[in-house]
Amino acid sequence: MLSFLGRRLFGKSLSHVGDFHCGMRGFNRDRIRQLGLCMPGMEFASELVVRAALNDYDIVEVPTTLQPDGRSRPPHLRTWRDGWRHLRFLLVFAPRKTLIWPGAIMFVLGLIGTTILTVGPLRVAGVGFDINTLVYTCLAMLVGTQVLMFGAFALIYGHNEGITSERQSDRWIRLVRLETCTALGVLLVLVGLAGSILAFSAWGARGFGAQDLGEALRVVLPSSTCIGVGVTVIFAGLFSSLLSLRRVNTPVASPASEFASTNA
Asked: What is the pTM of this model?
């Protein structure tokens, strides 16, 4: 299952690899050292294959017949614990397919549903969709935004740690920089505030008394969602800027050199 998932997540480059976790491997030592492998546990086996493929290394799988090894002691492998570590690595190492695309799809579907239901109830094949559905479409927008941003953070972090290539992360670094996210976030917050003011004005026109709950929620829910998404985007831009900061390593002068320069 883990090998199948790896082939699905990393595409054609590993489509011919049937077993991600076979321990019998031959490789060029210098080329592998260039990858900067860093996983501390059993998931190192997956990291070796995945990062070699992402760096366009040639990988060939030789058919092997497995037989009992004859050891008297039990194997070190722990099926569930080590299996989970492999699974976690594969999911985190492919943020586009596990975070960015699911988040984007969730947000778009939520946006479409919210837009339609803000206008009025919808009936499809005899099934009615109204305020209850609107609550969940707004929720989909919020969750989709957060998942999408986490995917962008994962790409930026991977770039900073040398895990992903610059080509994968540069576009997202530009999209989620502080200036862009702040402008978009402030715009969404203003739209949400405008809708909130509209709802408040409609309530005031009725003397702040009883309201038509359905009509009020058609304005309040999308407005509050815009505010929530806007605030999320603003802080996402701040966090991505923190991830993008690089520490400049300056040489520290020794006391002897400082003394010499002072005397000079």
From this structure: 0.72
